[in-house]
Hints:
It is built from eleven helices and 14 strands. The protein is an alpha/beta fold. The longest helix has 20 residues, at 301-320. The mean pLDDT is 97. The structure holds nicotinamide-adenine-dinucleotide (NAD) and (2S)-2-hydroxybutanedioic acid (LMR). (2S)-2-hydroxybutanedioic acid (LMR) is lined by residues 91-92, 98, 131, 158, 226-227, 229-230, 236-237.
Amino acid sequence: xKSPVDIAVTGAAGQxxxxxxxxxxxxxxxxxxxxxxxxxxxxxxALDALNGVLMELNDCAYPLLHDVVxxxxxxxxxDHVDYAFLVGAKPRKQGMLRSDLLLQNAEIFQVQGKALxxxxxxxxxxxxxxxxxxxxxxxxxxxxxxxxxxCFAAMSMLDHTRAISQLAAKCAVSIRDVSNVCVWGNHSCxxxxxxxxxxxxxxxxxxxxxxxxxxxxxxxxxQHRGTEVIKARGASSAASAANxxxxxxSVWINGTDDGDWVSMAVPSDGSYGIAEGLVYSFPCRVVDxxxxxxxxxxxNAFSRERLRQNEAEVREEMLAIQHMx
Length: 325
Ligand code: NAD
Ligand code: LMR
């Protein structure tokens, strides 16, 4: 039997974690022969609820779940972890924008960045899901100066899978027939889901769906999907967010499919004119556990304007928390 791998999850008593933890323990991330230790972080008042989740995890008798650590101390949670899912943060309610959460959630990611810096393994993969995800990832990354910036990413995978799902439904094809979709920019209503490079059964997607559907239907549907879920459920997306978190981390570990890419919000290296260091969603390929922004895609004037608007929004968020970087 392999030695157990440590995985931290913050906000472990929350909605997303209620799906995420059980899938991790079932082997959905690291496979059927890799034991894991779950290191679960919550705020002190939520520890009772988290103990209830712990009872349920134990009741599942997962063969791969070697141990569970429950704590309200970030350094204990991140001690020697290889993977960290930073989920814990307030979700927005109906009528709010994700950026309304910025100042409420910022301190969480400042504290957790410092704790990751002190305690996590040096090659840790940190995925920030808590909103506003791009700027929270920037906060965590900049507060962890001893970890490489490439240890950090924010989650735009749910936007990516939403985009694939919409395109596959429009073309009445299987999800497997769709490739090279990408979502650029901020995980906000400004995000730019882009079909200029997408393929359906190897055919240029825009030639199949038409520009009107792309501009008037597809883009706003993907941009506002989170808002629509909140309206319908009375709470923000949870199981689909947990699924996206597992998919993001799984691609980060195992690599992208041949010829395809995924959307990941990562520290910009200046590609496509996006200011270096801003956490911004790009099409990324993953090789040997390292993500690489896909270079040299042709960007027309329509796309360029949307990339620029997203950069401006992420930059504005950064300015609001600059004193914490
Ligand atoms: P939730 O309110 O159900 O759970 C959040 C949990 O975090 C709570 O249990 C809370 O006690 C805990 N928490 C708060 N501060 C903490 C801290 N300092 N340390 C550890 N835990 C802490 O919320 P949820 O529905 O699970 O959503 C979590 C976050 O994920 C929200 O910010 C939400 O907006 C975001 N989200 C992002 C995406 C995405 O695609 N990036 C998708 C869905 C939700
Ligand atoms: C989502 O996209 O579903 C999440 O970011 C939650 C939200 O506030 O929309």
